[in-house]
Amino acid sequence: MNPKSSDPAARITVAGFNQMLADQHPFASTLGIEIIDIGFGTATLLLPDRSSHQRLGGIIAGPMLMGLSDLALYAAIVGATGNSQAVTASLSINFLRGAPPGGILAHASILKTGRLAAGDVLLVPAAGGDPVAQVISTWSLPRNT
Amino acid sequence: MNPKSSDPAARITVAGFNQMLADQHPFASTLGIEIIDIGFGTATLLLPDRSSHQRLGGIIAGPMLMGLSDLALYAAIVGATGNSQAVTASLSINFLRGAPPGGILAHASILKTGRLAAGDVLLVPAAGGDPVAQVISTWSLPRNT
Amino acid sequence: MNPKSSDPAARITVAGFNQMLADQHPFASTLGIEIIDIGFGTATLLLPDRSSHQRLGGIIAGPMLMGLSDLALYAAIVGATGNSQAVTASLSINFLRGAPPGGILAHASILKTGRLAAGDVLLVPAAGGDPVAQVISTWSLPRNT
Amino acid sequence: MNPKSSDPAARITVAGFNQMLADQHPFASTLGIEIIDIGFGTATLLLPDRSSHQRLGGIIAGPMLMGLSDLALYAAIVGATGNSQAVTASLSINFLRGAPPGGILAHASILKTGRLAAGDVLLVPAAGGDPVAQVISTWSLPRNT
Q1: Are C33 and C52 in contact (CB under 8 A)?
Q2: Per the domain annotation, does D3 fall within a domain?
Q3: Model-level pTM?
């Protein structure tokens, strides 16, 4: 599902996705995540710098990065399918190095849609530098209603 | 690392662990997680019922279950090693069924310690019933200071 | 899916499963895996000691343990559902310690069936001792035909 | 670890790696895997078309793809570090679609080296087309001797 100029547009706008999150996913606002972009099977989200995301030494806590990744995959899947009923079936994350303060960007890509969707996320410091974590994940897509 | 009567006691008490969390891991209090028990390589934690953990339909959001699992593993590793510098290297979670409202218990067990530790978590409804998710994870343990 | 006395019998016998493997899964005979037991959502398989499974130092190679785990999950799923069309959707393995020579037992348990099944495997030395690897996995079950 | 023109050369040649496999990793020759290329933290391997890799319907068996991925990561790590004592600590694979007959290419990239290394693999049909599986993995690197 590499984006091509002939790809259809995303099935949801950033504004529409934010409205859906406000209605249905209160944890997103708890974490303060910002939706930067949603395409056809892709999404970029930002976890801003906040002290409550950090643990000892200013390192951003792993669960925040997992939550960010999960939401980035969800945005990318809704962008590809319009199906807001998608739920995570499995998620695997490898932590590569301590995440520096300053905000983290999540780049999600969907490699397969259908009854079972799958994709990956790369987490990189917003200020630049080497990736801090890497995710692969599968999602179950109930029939759209 | 099945607990035996000859096992040494846990290397940290629940009270000591809660103090460490308050000092160093603000996300734990954000989620409202309660530490029920810590043994030598085991831990039981409770994610209480809170509306902010839920998504559409009252289902507890996946990221909350990932955060709960991560913290349960951390407690079990500190219980086995006393090493509070342990950090997650990898975590894989499978979601088995929607988590009902009413609180979720996480039962963590460590199968290996050393420079690289590993263990698993089973997440079950506090009210009883079939497990809602299953986790395996590896952790890096820097030399204790 | 803890086995209870009221559980239905396994949906396939060891003899029937071996026949299916001989017909359809030539890799099982390549590895020389023996099916010890199949129950309703459980299975025990043995990877015998063979020099071609080993790498430097007599340690059994990781891919052999992954293949053993995959087949153990498949046997447990067919034991629970009778559905031989099940295919692996995701598999995560953590290696805990070097597997000694002498054969490895895989104990698989299915925690959920349905359109998407899920379960785990614990790999232990046949001669006894601590587990050498731990697996969680999800499977897609096409409609049985 | 994106390759740049200023990157050092790979720490091992394809010929040297093949010699090492022949000496130490008999499973590689069992699978008939061909080493196409090794760079500084990258590797491309080919699993050729062989009937013993296939299951019902000509679909290449999952364990063969896991073994291929594991070996591709090993080649990429040795290419980056020269450390042939590296061992898999964790591996997660998502299967995206049935692998067609005709051979499968594995493209491995290492994102982090050190005491614990990590990277990913994308598995694609040698004849072209959409990826069939996706892997992330961590590796433990004992001190080089």
Answers
A1: no
A2: no
A3: 0.91
